[in-house]
Amino acid sequence: MTNIALNPQDLEITLDNFKGQTHLDISLKVQEDLIFAVDIYSFQPQDHPDNHLGWWQYKLKNGEHKLRIYLDLNSVVKDSISLSEDGKKIQSHNHWINPDYDLVPLMECKLVFWDETPEIMQLKRILLKVDNKNVLDSFYDRQFEKDAYSPEHPFLDLLHHFKLKILKKLFKRHFQGNVLDVGCGLSLFTAYDQKWNFSIYAGDCVHALMKARKNERPDISWLVFDASHLPFKSNIFDSLFAGEIVEHLPEPESGVKEWNRVLKKGGTLVVTTPNRQRRVNRLNQQDWPISPDHLREFSYTELNDSLLPGGGFKVLKRKGIYLELWAKSNKWWMEDYLQREGNTKKNAWIMNLLFRLGYLFPKNSLVLISLAKKL
Question: Are strands 106-114 and 52-58 parallel, antiparallel or unpaired?
């Protein structure tokens, strides 16, 4: 019979200069030999070996353990991860590292006990964040090269469809004059088969992408800039669109204030962002991001009652898309079935229903859309 208690002090660690640490309480009452491992992958995807930073294995005796885990990812070496107890370092009896691993904004650190089968006996996960600008820029350059902006699955196609439907109404009713699209990617404005009655200025930090889009869509002014440090004078834009960008910013509060700065008084802001407190996260009681580059996601309340008002905006409309109603356990945590193995064409009718249910329950929805004006 196996009795294991595994309790990390932190479920999320932001690495400062690529370094971090946390405490770990372990209680072992076992009748068999178990292996404890620290295993680190990129948040998504988790393909071995390309997206695998490394693993470290340790042998722990029965009893109570209060461990400290140290992380130093300035380089991927044997000592990138180290454990200590009562000030004494615990030597790993086995390890594997990937010296060619490229750091990414988010990584998943799994703390695992398994037996000789091997069968996992206990598992906890910690989210590692790296908000270094060079890491972020390198990540986005690689994403652009992979053409990661094109949805490949039915769920993403439907999400895109419902988002475009809501945004089209907001753009037509509330946008005018000069419109700024920050962190634009391909720019959602180009996803519609119509001409807009306003001028669009779209910018992103990926130079190659902006250069390509300038040739493809010369009707839009394409620029290279950081979404939280805009190269414009104050009070010059009538409207601003921030689509799925605030969650990427190392300092989102400063970014929202910067958007406010370039808008004219009474100017309109539309923000879309994932919901930190979507239903599956509530069930897991853990703030697990949707994508590997989301440094900080916001809840419905945090976005509309704190972040936007704190940046000088009054929220006028609040929307939600998709309710993760079909939640299934993978033994260790809950997942949305329709975004995993159930992401198939035959389930499209259920997805359509749940996308609409997000309208009725925005606080629990997957995606948030807010319309606000500058005070």
Answer: unpaired
Sign, CA torsion 285/290/291/295: negative
Q: State whether residue 146 is helix, strand or coil.
A: coil
Interatomic CA distance for residues 47 and 223, integer angstroms: 34
Domain annotation covers residue 358: yes
Neighbours of 367 (CB within 10 A): 22
Contact 158, 151 (CB under 8 A): no
Q: Per residue in 352-375, pLDDT tens? A: 999 999 999 999 999 999 999 999
Phi then psi dihedrals of residue 304, to 5 deg? -90, -25
- Tell me, yes or no, whether 85 and 181 share the same domain: no
Specify whether 126 is located in the same domain as 152.
Answer: no
- Gap between the Cα atoms of 238 and 179, Å rounded: 6
- CATH of residue 94's domain is 2.60.40.2550
Same domain assignment for residues 114 and 166: no
Given pLDDT bands bounded at 50, 70 and 90, which one contains residue 60?
confident
DSSP 229: B
